[in-house]
Amino acid sequence: MSVQKPSQPREVIVFFYDGRWTEGTQNDYRFVGATFAGRGYLVVIPDYRKNPDVRFPTFVEDAARAAAWVHDHIAEWHGDPHRIHVVGHSAGAHIGALFAADAH
Asked: pTM score, two decimals?
């Protein structure tokens, strides 16, 4: 089976999952990725380190690094680095908002 390359780069969703900064994995949210992918998006669900192993703002820094990686490499996966949307659920939405609001 071969995978056909899309004719246009796809819009990208970077989804940060919930877990109260203490639990959860990207695998818990495969259904979210599948739902967005079914609507034509290329989806990235990064993992991030959690409390108590790390403290705030480490998970926000992890999210920023993940988003930077997506921007720098998503074209290799036929994604559009100029059309990246950051979304999340609960604590994941908070993490995404915190890093997106930081000019660094």
From this structure: 0.88
Nearest Cα to Cα of residue 88 among 40, 22, 20: 20
Closest listed residue to residue 89, CA positions, set 33, 50, 51: 33
pLDDT in tens, the chain (104 residues): 445 566 799 999 999 999 998 998 899 999 999 999 999 999 999 999 999 999 999 999 999 999 999 999 999 999 999 999 999 999 999 999 998 898 77
Q: What is the CATH number of domain 10-100?
A: 3.40.50.1820
Query: What is the rounded CA–CA span in Å between residue 15 and residue 43?
Result: 7
